[in-house]
């Protein structure tokens, strides 16, 4: 793998990055190891738990299943890119107030999935919330307070979400 | 320095704080570490790098039982790049210290389960480890293994001790044998529960460093820093001050990080010592699922005598659990199963014979509920079978036998605290509209391929360690004040999502009379904090919370007596008094040691007395739909009414209940550990299935609050309680829906199919 390192250019949380990496290295590992963006977590390494969810070109992806060469030229958003100037994103505020996070390990991925959901559907029904978050496993909360948090954030700030999600379709 | 009440007896004030009006306790203040978690800047073990850090991996056995004949190293690997640790490198005892030290740190010539650690490897590049692990060839002389409770009981093959018996208990009250003859009804049943995986989303992981001068330092995802500390002292033969254990942010635990981190920490530290580098070991999901602990499988048999009015006369219970290859926590899990096996009922004659058996599988361990979910499943399913057998409404049967004030339990513990099961039941029935829904389903089911039913479970969960456990723990906890003006909570009690940081800082702020924001947690580092005991057994709010309440009140008294603090004070006045006290005394710290509530007595020999200082109580109701075309069972709605003492933080408490119920739904209907040759075959999230956002029904949570006099601001335990009830409530609802009483979990569609498809029409209730 070391013989064929390649320069990959992509945008992470609004910043242009250029990295010399093995092209098949997982996006998850590039984020965590090369860029030290450790907010994105690994839970299963096989695309089941959603802890490593990030947004890439307006799609929610499991970064453990994305070789970094696929991110060439892409816009990637991670949990570190959610708060603006230190102000919590409305979803983060809602998770904090309503108990949407317990141990916190699924939280970054869950926040990205919720961001994606609201970007596509600012006023989701309960069924749509359940479906939108079904790829993200949480073992602590039983999901109920995560649903509450998403509903509260949607009610508060549809317009804000749209502005803060430049990569949304 | 320990200040044990130099200013009068503050330990049990006459005016109980539990009834006082509070500012912060009872409010849903935001989670203490919540912002860090939401911003993605909370540092879990895998997020931490140490200078020159290497990575470690484990070479495990592949057979369930046998002698190691040879270990070979493949020529495809340059082994000089690696550090290799074997049992010969263990400087102290090759034992993991817990209750009985029967589990080796590394296999010493023999393996007793498929995933036993034999060799450890470390390398600077973690990507080189996988191939290296696969290139170690181990040959064995196999021995015959056993995999079930029944095989272990037969004792044809002895794999542990003299008789395969890890632990047994006999509990007797009255005389069951003379009761059978004059009973109006005798009902028997056998109930089985499977293993369950914790499935915390963060796998087990640690980083270890070793240095000749300072000894061993470990950072890790763990529940009990002092358990790891104790075990490392023995493995490394080091004095207490040469081992330091620091908990990192921990991504879920549920009991799964109670005892296992002692093994992993020892492994990483051995590699660190031999390599001279910091070594990180973080399991991937497959290794975590295969090699770490799970909930004990159980087989519980009930034989119950009742009079003609449905009053319990005798309960004869046999509890058997599968403990796995080593004893680990099986004795204490069995103890809690024993003490929860007769349910929240009063019965004059009880006999409980319980046993935990060794098998050649990975040792089973602690998991939320700790034996109670198994016991509650059996008794609460059995109550519905009794009700059907004697022709009485299952609600009414329970009501006729509930424990009430001044009644005695199976251990002859007198119910001194109020018991409000009737009130909880009434509320649960009303909130769930139980009878109206049942009537509707009875009407609709015959013409509907989807059969609906309602099921109930009634149960208690004992708060804190069983019996004399809290006395042995002898916990110490307190508060100090930093020079930059923060009160710090000093505990080894850890946060892993359940809210330790938040509720303990709430309690300290409340007791002292300062804002929540001015109280922080001291780092969970054995070099800094006292040993407030393990973070297990629903003990943190009630036991440790009480210590922090006392320590906070004691701190204020100290300042008022010795530093001129007034009766009423502002925040500035408080910290000014702290500065004066520190100037005079060098530091300012208030610690309190555990004191058992008065009148508590437990006889370990006779297994009699006050099993728990407090019980939390709950009634759960499940509405379940069984699709007779697809044979799937779906929980459509769920109600949980509970009395957990004072609710310290309603948002966090609600989250505990909902999360526990979700895990209980998984336990009942989804989660199956498939063992092949004693090794978990479905050790992936792809095929070990937990409930997702689409599977969890609306959950309605209600609290009745009766402050417990000796708990932190009136709290009892809460964390484990909600996991005890869903499985029996759901299977009782399936019985209500289909007329078929299922006796084992997990109950998967194929299990429903096997029975329901065989029935052309469902007429009479059947017992399977």
Features:
A: about 170 residues; DNA polymerase, domain 1; 2 domains; five-stranded mixed β-sheet; 5 helices; about 35% helix; disordered C terminus; B: about 775 residues; alpha+beta; Aldehyde Oxidoreductase, domain 4; Aldehyde Oxidoreductase, domain 3; 3 domains; six-stranded mixed β-sheet; disordered N terminus
Could you explain how this protein is built, in words?
The complex is a heterodimer of chains A (169) and B (768). Chain A is 35% helix and 15% strand. With 169 residues, chain A is of the alpha+beta class. A five-stranded mixed beta sheet of chain A has the order 2-1-5-3-4, sandwiched between helices. In chain A, strand 3 (53-56) and strand 4 form a beta hairpin. In chain A, helix 3 (107-120) crosses helix 5 (144-164). The longest helix of chain A is centred in the last third of the chain and has 21 residues, at 144-164. By secondary structure, chain B is of the alpha+beta class. Helices cover 28% and strands 24% of the residues of chain B. Chain B has 19 helices and 30 strands. Chain B has a seven-stranded mixed beta sheet. In chain B, strands 7-15-14-13-8-29 form a six-stranded mixed beta sheet. A four-stranded mixed beta sheet of chain B has the order 16-23-24-27, with helices on both faces. In chain B, strand 21 and strand 22 form a beta hairpin. Chain B is globular, with a radius of gyration of 27 Å. Residues 1-19 of chain B have low confidence and may be disordered.
Low-confidence stretches of chain A: 165-169
> Could you estimate the helical fraction of the residues of chain B in percent?
25-40%
Number of strands of chain A: 5
What Rg of chain B is obtained from the alpha carbons, in whole angstroms? Answer: 27 Å
CATH superfamily of the largest domain in chain B: Aldehyde oxidase/xanthine dehydrogenase, molybdopterin binding domain
Q: Taking all residues together, what is the mean pLDDT of chain A?
A: 93
Arithmetic mean of pLDDT of chain B: 95
Major beta sheet, strand line-up of chain B: 3-5-1-12-9-10-11
Largest interface: A-B, 53 and 55 residues
The percentage of residues in β strands of chain B lies in 15-25%
CATH topology of the largest domain in chain B, by name, is Aldehyde Oxidoreductase, domain 4
Strand percent estimate of chain A: 5-15%
């Amino acid at each position: 793998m070391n013989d064929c390192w390649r320069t990959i250019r992509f945008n992470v949380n609004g910043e242009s990055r250029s990295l010399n990496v093995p092209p098949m290295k997982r996006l998850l590992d590039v984020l965590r190891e090369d860029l030290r963006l450790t907010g994105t977590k690994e839970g299963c390494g096989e695309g089941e738990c959603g802890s490593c969810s990030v947004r890439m070109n307006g799609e929610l992806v499991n970064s453990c299943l994305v070789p970094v060469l696929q991110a060439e030229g892409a816009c990637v958003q991670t949990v570190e890119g959610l708060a603006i100037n230190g102000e919590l994103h409305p979803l983060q505020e809602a998770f904090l107030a309503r108990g949407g996070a317990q141990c916190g390990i699924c939280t970054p991925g869950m926040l990205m999935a919720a961001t994606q959901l609201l970007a596509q559907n600012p006023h989701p029904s309960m069924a749509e919330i359940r479906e939108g978050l079904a790829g993200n496993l949480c073992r602590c909360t039983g999901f109920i307070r995560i649903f509450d948090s998403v509903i509260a954030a949607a009610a508060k700030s549809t317009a804000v979400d749209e502005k803060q999600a430049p990569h949304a379709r | 320095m320990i200040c044990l009440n130099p200013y009068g007896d503050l330990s049990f004030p006459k005016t109980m704080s539990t009834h006082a009006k509070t500012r912060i306790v009872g409010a849903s203040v935001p989670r203490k570490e919540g912002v860090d978690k939401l911003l993605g800047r909370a540092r879990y073990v895998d997020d931490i790098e140490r200078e020159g850090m290497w990575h470690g991996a484990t070479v495990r056995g592949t057979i369930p039982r046998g002698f190691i004949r040879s270990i070979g190293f493949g020529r495809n690997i340059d082994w000089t790049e690696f550090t290799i640790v074997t049992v010969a490198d263990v400087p102290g005892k090759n034992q993991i210290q817990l209750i009985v030290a029967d589990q080796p740190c590394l296999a010493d010539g023999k393996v007793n389960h498929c995933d036993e650690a034999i060799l450890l490897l470390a390398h600077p590049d973690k990507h080189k480890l996988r191939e290296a692990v696969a290139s170690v060839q181990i040959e064995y002389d196999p021995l015959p293994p056993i995999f079930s409770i029944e095989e272990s009981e037969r004792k044809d093959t002895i794999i542990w001790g003299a008789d395969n018996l890890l632990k047994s208990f006999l509990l007797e009250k009255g005389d069951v044998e003379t009761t059978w003859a004059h009973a109006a009804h005798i009902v028997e049943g056998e109930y089985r529960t499977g293993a369950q995986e914790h499935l915390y989303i963060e796998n087990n992981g640690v980083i270890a460093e070793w240095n000749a001068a300072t000894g061993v330092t470990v950072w890790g995802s763990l529940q009990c820093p002092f358990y790891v500390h104790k075990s490392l002292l023995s493995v490394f033969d080091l004095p207490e001050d040469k081992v330091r254990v620091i908990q990192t942010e921990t991504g879920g635990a549920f009991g799964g990080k109670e005892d296992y981190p002692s093994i992993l920490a020892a492994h990483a530290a051995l590699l660190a010592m031999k390599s001279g580098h910091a070594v990180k070991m973080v399991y991937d999901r497959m290794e975590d699922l295969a090699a770490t602990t799970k909930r004990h499988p159980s087989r519980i048999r009930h034989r119950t005598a009742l009079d003609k009015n449905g009053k319990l006369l005798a309960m004869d219970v046999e509890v058997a659990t599968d403990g796995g290859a080593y004893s680990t926590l099986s004795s204490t899990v069995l103890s809690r199963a024993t003490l929860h096996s007769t349910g929240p009922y009063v019965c004059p004659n009880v006999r409980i014979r319980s046993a935990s058996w060794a098998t050649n599988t990975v040792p089973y361990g602690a998991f939320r509920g700790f034996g109670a979910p198994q016991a509650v499943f059996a008794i609460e399913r059995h109550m519905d079978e009794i009700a059907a057998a004697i022709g009485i409404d299952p609600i009414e049967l329970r009501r006729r036998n509930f424990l009430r004030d001044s009644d005695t339990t199976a251990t002859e513990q007198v119910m001194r605290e109020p018991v409000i099961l009737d009130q909880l039941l009434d509320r649960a029935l009303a909130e769930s509209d139980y009878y109206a829904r049942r009537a509707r389903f009875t009407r609709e089911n015959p013409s509907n391929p989807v059969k609906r039913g309602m099921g109930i479970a009634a149960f208690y969960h004992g708060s804190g360690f069983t019996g004399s456990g809290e006395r042995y723990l002898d916990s110490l906890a307190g508060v100090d004040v930093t020079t930059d003006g923060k009160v710090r909570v000093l505990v080894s009690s850890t946060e892993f999502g359940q809210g330790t940081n938040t509720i303990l800082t709430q309690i300290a702020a409340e007791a002292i009379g300062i804002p929540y924001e001015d109280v922080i947690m001291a780092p969970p580092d054995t070099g800094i904090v006292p040993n407030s005991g393990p973070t297990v057994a629903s003990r943190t709010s009630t036991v440790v919370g009480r210590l922090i309440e006392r320590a906070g009140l004691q701190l204020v008294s100290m300042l008022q007596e010795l530093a001129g603090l007034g009766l009423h004070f502002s925040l500035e006045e408080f910290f000014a008094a702290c500065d004066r006290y520190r100037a005079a005394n060098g530091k300012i710290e208030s610690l309190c040691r555990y004191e058992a509530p008065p009148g508590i007595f437990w006889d370990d020999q006779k297994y009699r007395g006050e099993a728990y200082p407090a019980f939390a109580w709950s009634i759960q109701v499940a509405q379940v739909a069984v699709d007779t075309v697809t044979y799937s069972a779906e929980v459509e709605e769920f109600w949980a009414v509970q009395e957990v003492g004072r609710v310290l933080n309603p948002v966090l408490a609600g989250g505990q209940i909902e999360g526990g119920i979700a895990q209980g739904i998984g336990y009942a209907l989804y989660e199956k550990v498939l063992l092949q040759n004693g090794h978990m075959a479905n050790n992936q999230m792809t095929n070990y299935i937990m409930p997702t956002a689409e599977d969890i029904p609306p959950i309605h949570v209600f609290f009745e609050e009766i402050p417990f006099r000796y708990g932190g601001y009136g709290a009892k335990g809460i964390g484990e309680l909600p996991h005890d009830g869903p499985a029996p409530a759901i299977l009782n609802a399936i019985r209500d829906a289909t007329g078929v009483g299922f006796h084992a979990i997990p109950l998967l569609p194929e299990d429903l199919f096997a029975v329901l498809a065989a029935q052309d029409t469902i007429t009479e209730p059947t017992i399977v």
